[in-house]
Design a protein that fits this description.
The protein is of the alpha+beta class and about 450 residues long. Helices cover about 45% and strands about 20% of the residues.
């Protein structure tokens, strides 16, 4: 039955979806990927810079994210604050975000307004005006954001500490928002240097998805981005994470209502899409453990044994930094300790390593992952995100086409093999939240209404 369901889902995948993707490269090195989707008269346009916290070094943490805020502070032609107003006046939505591997700026507009988006993005790619006065204001916004997003959120604090312990050499160990001490020392010069170093057409990908013709998109891109000059990019020093030789633990004490557990194992990423099978097997493993209501962790720990209120897994095979983590987290039920929950999760893993997964589980997870993939393709925004993410990580959008078939090829033996190989004690980092009494009178940090994210 499930095999039939998968065949049906694969049949739903519009073969045309990928026939309708085209890529171009301008003489200055800007890569352009266009996907036609004529279902509604809308276009999503995203500019991806291959620059994120991965490229920062000690003492400069948070600079990628601070510059993302500064990108809205104006050029000669478009004064501070005007960028967002112009997009809103055209009936569009826009925003930006910074991650470990990239910084992304995007607009969603009625299709005839694509030119506005290109004009604005090309202008700020080359002509950003960075003033000390605007910077001084914005760095305060970012510090406040750090307070309410991380320091006031116990689970965020646990995640930050967990990353810093799991990664001892790799830049992924540092928070994207930056350490507070680094933010306090940031100057407008730091932002300028970052902008000069990475904000170049030859370090960017323009992704356009929607009711457009690739020829038209290319014409507009040539008109606005074409005149920008390419500059030599610095050599990137790729850092690897040394092998872990034994379990690592960290406890975070913070005011909170409930305890929390976060565990993770170092895991490989997709490097050679033709031959790598482990990342696909890890993705299926994640689905077997979490994925849906009938997945193992939910079935056994939440519903049957009532050890946890919630429990989930996460794994990302696309990472420009060349390393990933297989994550599990959860909140123990009242009267259950974090230690009990950890023991229960490790028990589930051991069982899987010993007895493997059933054919039925395997088929269900495949059907579900492929269905999620089909549904995501329904969203222009997600489709653009997937294209940009692959391209910026140094892979190709063409992988989207093979993804369902690659998952489909994973065997039960392969799922058991990756569990045995990577989910081992010596490769494990565990972070726990030890909840402290909440002081009702403590000052609350407010979410910044005008931050861009």
């Amino acid at each position: 039955m499930l095999t039939r369901l998968i065949c049906f889902l694969l049949a739903l995948l519009p073969a045309a979806a990928y026939a309708d993707i085209q890529e171009f490269k301008l003489d200055n090195g800007l890569k352009i990927v266009v996907q036609e989707d004529h279902r509604s008269p809308v276009v999503v346009s995203q500019v991806w810079y291959r620059a994120g916290s991965l490229d920062e070094f000690n003492g400069t943490t948070g600079v990628a994210h601070v510059l993302e805020h500064m990108m809205f502070k104006g050029t000669k032609q478009v004064p501070a604050g005007q960028f967002s107003r112009l997009v809103a006046a055209a009936g569009g939505k826009e925003n930006a975000f910074t991650a470990t591997d990239h910084t992304v700026y995007f607009q969603q507009l009625e299709k005839s307004k694509l030119e506005l988006s290109m004009k604005l993005e090309a202008d700020r790619m080359a002509n950003l005006q960075l003033t000390a006065a605007e910077f001084a204001k914005e760095i305060k916004v970012v510090m406040e954001e750090r307070r309410w997003r991380t320091e006031d959120k116990p689970q965020s604090l646990v995640y930050e500490q967990f990353q810093a312990v799991a990664y001892q050499a790799h830049p992924y160990g540092r928070p994207v928002i930056g350490w507070m001490n680094d933010l306090e020392q940031r100057t407008v010069e730091d932002a300028r240097a970052w902008y000069k170093r990475w904000y170049e057409p030859n370090n960017a990908t323009l992704v356009v998805v929607g009711d457009v013709s690739p020829k038209e998109v290319l014409k507009l891109a040539k008109k606005y981005f074409g005149p920008l000059k390419a500059h030599a990019l610095p050599v990137r020093k790729v850092q690897t994470e040394p092998e872990q030789h034994g379990e690592r633990r960290v406890t975070v004490k913070a005011p909170a209502k409930l305890p929390y557990l976060l565990m993770g194992y170092h895991a490989p990423v997709l490097r050679d899409p033709e031959h790598d099978w482990e990342p696909y097997a890890l993705e299926i493993l994640s689905g077997v453990l979490d994925g849906n209501a009938s997945a193992r962790l939910n079935q056994d720990l939440v519903r049957r044994d009532r050890i946890a209120i919630d429990v989930s897994t996460g794994y990302d095979m696309v990472q420009r930094g060349g390393v990933s983590l297989f994550l599990m987290d959860g909140t123990p039920s009242e009267g259950t300790s974090v230690g009990d929950l950890e023991t229960a999760i490790l028990g589930e893993i051991e069982q899987l390593k010993e007895n493997g997964v059933t054919e039925e589980e395997l088929q269900r997870v495949k059907a579900q992952v492929i269905a999620a993939d089909v549904y995501q393709r329904d969203s222009m925004f997600y489709q653009a995100m997937k294209i940009g993410n692959l391209e910026t990580a140094g892979l190709s959008w063409r992988l989207l086409k093979d993804y369902p078939a690659r998952l489909q090829a994973v065997t039960a033996e392969q799922v058991q093999a990756v569990a045995r190989k990577y989910l081992t004690t010596d490769n494990l980092t565990v972070a726990t939240l030890d909840p402290q009494p909440i002081d009702e009178n403590a000052p609350k940090h407010k979410e910044m209404p005008h931050g861009h994210h």
